Amino acid sequence: MRKPPKPKPLLQDADKPVQSRPRKPRNPAQPNLPLDPMPDRVDPCLALLKTKPPKGRQWAFEVKWDGYRLAVHIEPSGVRVLTRGGHDWTDRFPSIVAQAKRLSVSTAILDGEAVVFDEQGRSDFGKLQQSLGGRGGKRTSREAVFLAFDLLYFDGRDLTGTELSARRHLLEGLVPAGGEDAIRLSEEIEADGDVLLRIACEHGLEGIIAKDRNSTYRSGRLGDWLKIKCVQSDGFLIVGYEKSTASFGGIGRLLLAARKGDELVYVGGVGTGFNERSAGELRKQMDKLIIGKPAVDTGRKRIAVFVLPKLIAEIEYRAWTHDGKLRHASYKGLREAQDNAVVYALEQPSISDT
Predict the structure, then answer these.
(1) What global pTM score does this model have?
(2) Band of pLDDT at residue 22, cut at 50, 70 and 90
């Protein structure tokens, strides 16, 4: 059998030792490696709704927080706080801004959620809205806490093309877990997704988030992040209300609509979840939008007041009835336009269904 040829040393004579090229001293006039330009804004990565937690070691889990999605931009010139839609809310979160200035970093973009906690330590969207003066209010919130769950830019480097596990490692070094500061870490929880969801629901939380550890940061709802809810919660347009002398703000029931293609469809009403303050603020907003005829067919309503479909209410509900109405609905608050509030879209029948 013929022997294979002996490999030759790469670019060397066999009898000479391998040596590297002599190092030259660095030319002081040579510029340093260029830094990545810091973006003015990054469209957020959004979580895709699923009914069950995913399986697999690549999935990391966190609590689903109920607040306003924000990006905190830290620069030598100062700190900016931007909403999901890109609106500047820096002046509305002074505590978060002050804490961001104390972080040991020169430039960074933190992705996270501004929340206000209730007495049980759960994020409460209604309390956050009240702290900001209600929908359209201009009040500053000193109660709000920013829960950071991602790091998109760090000390001159764009991290959006880096996998989540590396971004989280840097974030955990920048924002320590625990504490009482206005910026805190949204911690990953080592647990089976099904078990974690059950525990979250038992504690009255909104649900959990699952994130692919190997994914880069991609804007939009592409499935790298998933949300699994204990109860359904979505945005619906207010198209009117039924009067009641026995209820807060004289609101017996809100009349709601969802989108279906280019049209609006009535999906029932909600008569719970109000308190005196939220109902009073809501009534003021609705009374500015009163119209003579309903914008959508709500059926026969004897004591209804109809409004232009401009206000988006966040509604918590358990299920849908067979005729397309919300079941066990509860009002949570009004969504802000600056938060890129989304109106629930009903599925349209496909060609094969018709």
Answers:
(1) 0.70
(2) low
